[in-house]
Amino acid sequence: MKIVNTVAILDQKAERLRQILAGRARLIVAYSGGVDSAFLAWMAHQVLGGQMRAVIADSASLARTHLEDALAFAREHEIPVEVVETQELENPAYIRNDAMRCFYCKDELFTVLERYREARGFDAIAYGINADDEGDFRPGQQAARQHHVLAPLLEAGLNKAEIRELARQADLRLWDKPASACLSSRMEYGRAVTPEALRIIERGEDALRALGFRQFRVRHHGEIVRIEIARDELPRALTPRWLVSSPPCSKDWDSNSSLSTWRDSAPDR
Questions:
Q1: What is the pLDDT of residues 13-35, one digit of tens each?
Q2: Which fold would CATH assign to domain 7-169?
Q3: Are 144 and 106 in contact (CB under 8 A)?
Q4: pLDDT of 157-189, one tens digit each?
Q5: pTM of this prediction?
Q6: CA-to-CA distance for 27 and 256, rounded, in angstroms?
Q7: For 49, how many CA atoms within 13 A lie in the half-sphere containing its CB?
Q8: Do residues 167 and 39 lie in contact, with contact meaning Cβ atoms separated by under 8 Å?
Q9: How far apart are CA 120 and CA 107, in angstroms?
Q10: 257 — phi, psi (to 5°)?
Q11: Which of 37, 76, 100, 163 could be joined to 128 by an S-S link, Cβ 3.0–4.6 Å?
Q12: In Å, what is the CA distance from 15 to each residue of 10, 34, 164, 196?
């Protein structure tokens, strides 16, 4: 992660973002509730007011807690928001879960948003890619380019640390929210994505969240799940008290699990 730039340069980038957004009369923001898209939606609302709309895609790959928190954030800041359904789980190429899974997900998302844009008279769609994402393997960017989706944060030259700092300055509660990709990213390449597997992952992560953990993943490996917890939270996870209160077994939560340290460099697939 890049270090936050000097105050003057950060202010210049923020002003550049405002100018980019002001150049769009009616704008849809592809909204997920993560820091990047939430900050973009908030800034677009500051600049465009009612001429923007944050649109969040709902499917089995989106955790209910993430959907609820995204909608709550929009309500807190009076950002116009709407939920649309996407059907990526009906696409065999997505279910196959190879390295291009994110392409098929974003292709479905932007296809749905394009129909939404045309039906409601918006001019453009924007999403929350930032300058740090450029060097990563992100097939979803290919889908965004094919659908001519705007990237205001990237165009303004903002990286993740700078976006978090601007969100902090704006007193947005999610400025330090941990990154969290879709539930399908918890499955290894080549293992079919199914609603049942996604429910197992979601139940496991809900249980960890209820126990007070903040940064974690439940990785699905068929017969077992692997729990990853941030290094600074790991000591608490290894206490007898936590092990006693750890997620219970059920038909949707297999007792076979392993515990490992969260690594910032470990990608969500």
A1: 999 999 999 999 899 999 999 99
A2: Rossmann fold (3.40.50)
A3: yes
A4: 999 999 999 999 999 999 999 988 899 999 999
A5: 0.86
A6: 47
A7: 0
A8: yes
A9: 20
A10: -150, 160
A11: 37
A12: 9, 22, 16, 45
